[in-house]
Amino acid sequence: MIRRILYSSLACDRLVTKDVFDIIRQSHNRNCKNGLTGGLLFLDGYFFQVLEGLPHAVQCRYKRIARDPRHTDLVVRQDVTTASPLFSNEWMALRDASQVDPQVLDRHGYMRGMPAEKFTGRQLLEFVLDCFGKNTECLNEEMDPTHPATSASMAPVPIDALQIQPLTAW
Ligand SMILES: Cc1cc2nc3c(=O)[nH]c(=O)nc-3n(C[C@H](O)[C@H](O)[C@H](O)COP(=O)(O)O)c2cc1C
User: Fold this and answer.
1) Is the pLDDT of residue 69 over 70?
2) pTM of the complete model beyond 0.90
C-alpha cells in the first residue's frame, strides 16, 4: 500500500518558470532515490502536487516541502492510502499553463487556486489528472469504501492535522 497526498499552495511572488524547472530537476533526483512519484501542476501562481510512495517517505518529504519558502498557504486536499499509484515511474512530472488544453479548464469550471470551498479534493484530483492527460477511471474504486485495496479519506485535511513523524529515522 502507498500513501498519496494532494495539496495546493500559492507560489511566492518572485517565482518564475525557470525556478519551477529547478524545483522539478532537484525533485526528480531526490524522489527517484526515495521511491516517490507524482506530478506538479503550476497554474496562475498556484501549485497542485500529487506526491505518492511509501507512507513514511511521503510524510518526510511533505514535511520538507511544507517548509519551503518558495510557496505558502499549503492545504492538503486529499490524503489516501491506496494500492494504485497514479504516476507510476514518473518521479515528478510537470505541467504548466502552456501545456494544459484550455478545454480541460472549461470542462472542470476552473477557478484560480481551485478553492477548497468550491472544489472537493476528489474534484481537484480529477482536474489535475486531466491536466496531465491521465485517465480518471482508476479513481472509481476509491469511491467504494468496501473496495479491499483502498481506504480513503476524501475530506480536505488541514496541514496541522497531518501526523508528521521525526526525520531521524529517514
Ligand atoms: C511546489 C514545490 C514542490 C516540491 N516538490 C518536491 C518533491 O516532490 N520532491 C523533493 O525532493 N523536493 C520537492 N520540493 C523541494 C523541497 O521543498 C525541498 O527543497 C527539498 O525537498 C530539499 O529539502 P531539504 O533541503 O530539507 O532536504 C518542492 C518544492 C516546492 C516549492
Assistant:
1) yes
2) no
